[in-house]
Design goal:
The chain has 153 residues and is mostly helical. Among the domains are: 47-82, no CATH class; 115-148. It is 48% helix and 9% strand. The chain is built from 3 helices and 2 strands. Strands 1-2 form a two-stranded parallel sheet. 1% of the residues are buried.
Length: 153
């Protein structure tokens, strides 16, 4: 029974392939005739867009070139483009000093090794580091609230 089912599926695949081949042979002459349409169109002329500032002259065109000039005031010549104005510069890792990178790497390595005062579940000194980290966070919160409200003790 399985050999008959396999032969049947092979016949379906073969018939599908042959049907696709026949349809492609019928469509090919129609596509070839459509491509042989009238004479070739002339090449389009080149267009160049230029921004000129102040009283600068617009460059002259040459041959079949079209020059489109946009005039801006002289005060805009050396300005930052509008799409970039007002954006804050993001702190990038490339602008970070080597000292800060070394300190961060050292702190990550200590935590990964489970050394004392690292607040890690690995190693014998993790609990002291977690307490120290908790105390530092609480001191920072207390400083912030004291800076915000000097009357609070």
């Amino acid at each position: 029974m399985t050999a008959i089912a396999a032969a049947r599926s092979m016949m379906i695949v073969l018939l599908g392939f042959l049907l696709g081949l026949v349809l492609a042979m019928i469509a090919l002459p129609a596509v070839a005739n459509a491509q042989v349409a009238g004479p070739a169109e002339p090449a389009p002329s080149k267009t160049r867009s230029v921004v000129v500032y102040g009283d600068d002259p617009c460059p002259a065109s040459s041959g079949d070139e079209i020059v489109v000039c946009a005039r801006q005031p002289e005060s805009e010549r050396y300005r930052i483009p509008k799409r970039f104005r007002g954006q804050k510069a993001a702190a990038s890792p490339a602008g970070n000093s080597w000292t800060n990178k070394a300190v961060a790497t050292e702190g990550n390595a200590r935590a990964a090794a489970g050394l004392p005062n690292t607040c890690s579940a690995v190693g014998s000194g993790g609990q002291s580091g977690c307490f120290m980290q908790f105390m530092q966070q609480q001191a920072a919160i207390k400083r912030q609230t004291k800076d915000a409200d000097p009357d609070q003790p």
